[in-house]
What does this fold into?
Amino acid sequence: MPISRQWNIEPHCCAWCGGRVLSDVADVGHVRCADCGAEDGNGVKSICWCGAGSQLGDAPLTIHCGPNPDKSGSNMAEIVALQGPPPDPTSTRRKSAGRR
Ligand SMILES: [Zn+2]
Ligand SMILES: [Zn+2]
It folds into this structure.
């Protein structure tokens, strides 16, 4: 058993405490909150805000993780929960596609 595990820092924040979500480099799908320690084996969205909207069932509210639009004062977190639909999943290749 490895003594120290390697984690990727994901651009997602914990749905319970708002902490940064980490993903296990060696164990794909295993994610953990850097702050409260919430863990799940079903990927980032199982503990981040991106999955919260769908868990509300018929509620129209959708939440996703994104860069903090007002990174100052009381909330210095880099990634925060934002209201609204998540970014278009087809835009993940935006490095080459660019913006219109
Ligand atoms: Zn947490
Ligand atoms: Zn997320």
Summary: The chain has a mean pLDDT of 82. Residues 12, 44-45, 48-50, 64-65 surround zinc ion (ligand 2) (CB under 6 Å). The first strand starts at residue 7 and ends at 13. The chain has one domain: 7-85.
